[in-house]
TrEMBL record:
Keyword tags: Glycoprotein, Membrane, Receptor, Transmembrane, Transmembrane helix
Chief location bin: membrane
Protein name (Swiss-Prot/TrEMBL): Receptor ligand binding region domain-containing protein
Membrane topology type: Multi-pass membrane protein
InterPro entries associated with the record: ANF_lig-bd_rcpt, GPCR_3, Ionotropic_Glu_rcpt, Peripla_BP_I
Pfam families, sorted: ANF_receptor
Localization in the cell: Membrane
GO cellular component, one term: membrane
Protein source organism: Nymphaea colorata (pocket water lily)
Length: 209
């Protein structure tokens, strides 16, 4: 606040959607633009946060893509597995809206606490194993927690025939940055994932040239 009230022209960042929410409230009050390269939470919109500028795509796009896949294969119902924070809740809310547009739905929302442990994940996955829906969407902000989910799922024999696992772009972003070891690769066999994509345009060519 001390710097923002004096000479700050704009804020670049933060990387986390959760922190971006907090920063955007302050930026609104002080009328300081906030430029984020990574915050994808769909609730960070220009109507509520007029000084927030997003240079990446909102989660609405990937949730729309997941809903299209679910509808194409006529699965109709999915289970949403997410971390119980602003990013997780708002992303899953967007997924529910996009599924509803295609007469599909989230049959169960399984929320894991921030800082989740193997024990937390095991308890939730055991519960999910007893449910009818076998299509599970994993939406987390922390890739460590996400990889723990798949490791536990592999141990419980849930990454197998009869299950469909869909990971949002946290997984593709992580794998682009950190090559997976053999153990991680085995636990991710068959997992579908979304990836950020910027369509070709004159503006994109000008930016990259």
């Amino acid at each position: 606040l001390q710097f923002m009230e004096k000479d700050t022209v704009a804020i670049i960042g933060p990387q986390s959607s959760t922190i971006a929410h907090v920063m955007s409230h302050v930026a609104n009050e002080l009328q300081v633009p906030t430029l984020s390269f990574a915050a994808t939470d769909p609730s960070l919109n220009s109507l509520q946060y007029p000084f927030f500028v997003r240079t990446t795509q909102s989660d609405l796009y990937q949730m729309s893509a997941i809903a299209a896949v679910v509808d194409y294969y006529r699965w109709k119902e999915v289970v949403a597995l997410y971390i119980d924070d602003d990013y997780g809740r708002n992303g899953i809310s967007a997924l529910g809206d996009k599924l509803q547009e295609r007469t599909c739905k989230i049959s169960f929302k399984a929320a894991l606490p921030p800082g989740t442990t193997n024990s937390d994940i095991t308890d939730v996955l055991v519960k999910l194993a007893l449910m009818e829906s076998r299509v599970i969407v994993v939406h987390v902000s922390d890739p460590v927690a996400g990889l723990m989910i798949f490791s536990v799922a592999k141990h419980l024999d849930m990454v197998a025939d009869g299950y469909v696992w869909i990971a949002t772009d946290w997984l593709s972003s992580y794998l682009d940055t950190y090559p997976a070891n053999s153990e991680t690769t085995i636990s991710l066999q068959g997992v579908l994932m979304t990836r950020q994509h910027v369509p070709d345009s004159d503006q994109k060519k000008a930016f990259t040239s």
